[in-house]
Amino acid sequence: MNRLKQGGKFFLVLLGFALLTAYAVIFNNTSGWLLWLFYVGFILLNLVTLVFPLRQLQLTVSETFWTQAGTTFLLPVTVKSRGWFWVPAFSVSLPQHAQQPIFRSFYHGQRLTLNFPIEGLQRGIYPDLSVLVTAGDWFGLFQKSRKYVLPSELVVLPAVDESMAQFVPRLRKEQQMTLFGERTAEIRNHREYHRGDSLKQIDWKLTARSRQLMIREYQEKQESPVVFIFWGEAGPFFETQLRAYFNVQQQLAGLLAIQQYLVTAAGGEFLQGDRVFAAAKGFEQKPELFAFKNKTLLVFTGSSQPDTQLTAQIADWERTNQVKLYDLVSLSHSLKTRTEATATQEKTPAEGREER
Q1: Which numeric CATH code is attached to 55-157?
Q2: Which residues form the DUF58 domain (predicted)?
Q3: Buried b or exposed e, range 9-41, using 16+ CB within 10 angstroms
Q4: Amino acid 179: pLDDT
């Protein structure tokens, strides 16, 4: 479409030149030739503005830009010339992401930072940012453009889900093991009494035999390590499940030291960074998984009724671990409904006051 429009403009310029030339030759008067000279000068002046090659321009952008799905952000692109450069009309656009180009008039090669508003990106990783630069004359008669492919990528993480904040306190409470630090009836060892030891720990029979105060050291139960497992099976609710889990683990990141194990199409792996959430895809066939032992496994799924694959895997894990399931899809729906209901209740009294 742009080429067709540009071709039409060029045809009109040639047609105007042909008509003015014919007028000047046929009538051969001063006004005709002055008009012809003015038109030719106008065309040449516009052509001169395009003598500077666009390859002189250098464009840079951040190597990696992080954001979340559904959010609007500004993507800065820096433009500068490696030599002398000047054009009357100058525009830069991001064809893949930004609908509107950014225009500048009388650009002379100075360092320029253009902030493009980006919105509506879906979760994923977008490599190699394409930038289209267009230069032209004052009236748009002649234009030239150049496409740059910059070695940059947009990492779009799952969207924000504020409703999951209600679930975090409950999860923290359940995660804290009640057995941590409690004494059992098992005696681990005996030793001499030291000042400050509890008198209740004194073993009087052993003290009588050894004729010195001896106390009992009891075996203590220890907290079993907790592992969060994201069971990312492919399905219509995978995105909802992933978004809910991402928000939960983000809010717990600074509060609890937990291990996270993600089961996706890439296989089963311990979480090393947030990038995996941008690239995650649901699996069709269960991948080979790591064997856990003596741990508390909190499995986050997308259904309250596990299918055959998950049921078999849970049975295998339960041989040597404690396992608990969380249906993130149903949980996310119920929490959102509760949040909307609370917002309506808070809004209703205010509306009532306005009506009165």
Answers
A1: 2.60.40
A2: 190-227
A3: eeeebeeeeeebeebbeeeeeeebbeebeebee
A4: 41
